[in-house]
Amino acid sequence: MTKQIQEVIVVEGRDDTKRLREVFPNVDTIETHGSAINDAVLEKIALAQEKRGVIVFTDPDFHGEKIRKIISQNVPGVKHAFLPRADAKPYKKGSLGVEHANPAAILRALDHLYTQTSETHQEVTQADLLDHDLLDGPDAKHRRERLGDILHIGYTNGKQLLKRLAMFQISRADFLAAVAELDKGEQ
After folding, report:
1. How many other C-beta atoms are found inside a 10 Å radius of the C-beta of residue 124?
2. Which residue from 128, 120, 126, 173 is spatially nearest to 151, judged by alpha carbons?
3. pLDDT tens, position by position, 99-109
4. What are phi and psi of 54, to 5 degrees?
5. Distance (Å, rounded) from C-alpha 155 to C-alpha 25?
């Protein structure tokens, strides 16, 4: 039996909707049709959030992050699902996208939802990020990408990582466990 999704999922386009319906035949989506979200789309998302809840599931790229920011600023309390960049690569050519993910990757992403909160409590510090080679060094970018995959919070640059850890209330213990898993995988 296929898992049911109660919330409405916000995606970027019809190919994303098509891919999601291969995994969840009865899923409802709202398509943003790109990163220039208009007021009508934001109103639909706000109504969906009020009635059923919303999961933002955008591509793991610049435009997907821009859409997340716009929605989060305008519709508080939405949930976020993040697809690792490796799972969003096209088979031949094209850009990263939800439409390229296999069903297992989609299920994993939707099993790890985060709700953005306006009250942030910073348990992880910039010094922690430096100590674990997440801000500086030749492998920092790769380590941040892998950490984002392990924690299911998506890829971030160094400045965004600290913000996202606080925004999604990632505890220091969870952060350290993820870093340990990251270090173990690199050995």
Report:
1. 20
2. 173
3. 999 999 999 99
4. -135, 140
5. 28
| Pairing between β-strand 79-80 and β-strand 29-31 as defined by DSSP bridges | unpaired
Q: 3-state DSSP call for residue 30?
A: strand
- CA nearest 8: which of 37, 44, 59? 44
Q: What is the pLDDT of residues 138-152, one digit of tens each?
A: 899 999 999 999 999
17 in helix, strand or coil? helix
